[in-house]
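Holo model, adenosine-5'-diphosphate. Inputs:
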Amino acid sequence: MISVSQLSKKFGDLAVLKEIDFEVAKGEIVVIIGPSGTGKSTLLRCLNYLETPTTGNITIGPASIDALSHKAKDITELRKQSSFVFQNYSLFANKTALQNVAESLITVWKVPKQEALSTAEAILVKVGLAEKLNVYPSQLSGGQQQRVGIARAMAAKGEVILFDEPTSALDPEWVDEVLAVMKQLALEKQTMIVVTHEMQFAKEVADRVIFMEDGYIVEQGTPQQIFSNPEHERTKAFVKRALKQH
Amino acid sequence: MQSSFDLQYIIELMPILLKYLGVTMEMALWGFLFALILALGLALVRVFKIAFIQHLASLYISFFRGTPLLVQLFLLYYGFPQFMPIFVGMDAFTAAIIGLSLHFSAYMAESIRAAILGIDKSQMEACLSIGMTRLQAMKRVILPQASRVATPSLMNYFIDMIKSTSLAFTLGVAEIMAKAQMEASSSFKFFESFLAVAVIYWVVVIFFTRIQHLLEYKLNKAY
Ligand SMILES: Nc1ncnc2c1ncn2[C@@H]1O[C@H](COP(=O)(O)OP(=O)(O)O)[C@@H](O)[C@H]1O
Ligand SMILES: [Mg+2]
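Output:
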């Protein structure tokens, strides 16, 4: 359902992604791990075209785009097929929780306003924010803001939700409630690609773990393979360090 | 000859001058409305870096900020009709409004642009990430936030514009300054006449400054 081929990204002379190929099936939960600065965020941002790839092809559901010949229309179509959960939440500051979640339905999908609001409300109830519908982001805790962020991504009707270190900016006390929402989504077979340092989450929830380093996919496999029986030395070293920290 | 200060004259002059305050405020309000529309267009052209037009916009802004308002008004009202026939029938009141809006739009465009650029980049990215276009993002998220930032300085320009309408008397618009000038030259009470008109401007400005503060207070409470 998602297919990425020969994806490369350079910032000036710095090659950040080096001819990446991978595929994700519908309903699959993919976790990407790797040292910082290796291009994990850039990969996710390219999938959502927040970053323009230098070369390569991205297909998500019905939308397909080639970096060398993209048109504005293709970009919008591709973006409609995915949504993004940001490390720093990036909620719309001028909109309430409910309006944040309903925005894509109203503006992008042209759903009638009342219907959009009731859909948004149902999603917020699901992530445990029934009490916070009409509250602005500035009055929510980090954990609550990120749950609104996830709700907003859920409402956007994309094929896949992309998570870029969704718990890294949170105070430790809020991490679990956000992970709980993500686990719930995983149980419902929502396709997701998650960049995270939460190794426990990866072990429990991922169908597949990808280890990235230096702009390449070094190794991928089931959590069992990657965490207990990695093939590559570099994977072994990273996993050993990462598991020790937790 | 030295004459004594005539308070009675001022008191009698006030209601006569106040009848012309309407013209002054009409110029300021229309001028501000058109300036706002123009400024928004200019700011967006520059923020989106639209080819060619963005350079025209920069040139426009540079010219109207770089030359005196009085010169611009004279150019528009006395100069242009000489070789552009459509300006021939233009009355002084219209010319003043056009001149004021062109002039102030250049300043206001810059403060709107600064406000837009001051909104965190992540807000635009969040819009794009759910499939919104840049224009939708501007309309629904960026401009609403930027307008809160820009309001105090735009209100300052409005207040400045009220005062600048006094230059319209040089085009022959019968506004409050023109009336004061007329009264002064017939009574020879220059000090009293111009003091009276100064007080009126002052009170009007104090009034709109209060409104400005109320508006800022409301905006700050919004979210
Ligand atoms: N906008 C940018 N301009 C220049 N370099 C960038 C930009 N974004 C990221 N990089 C560089 O690309 C590399 C990969 O960054 P990133 O994708 O954020 O890594 P990760 O998410 O794995 O930590 C880093 O060296 C980073 O400095
Ligand atoms: Mg990152």
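The pocket of adenosine-5'-diphosphate (ligand 1) is lined by residues A 11, 14, 16, 36-42 (CB under 6 Å). The mean pLDDT of chain B is 94.
Archived with the compound record.
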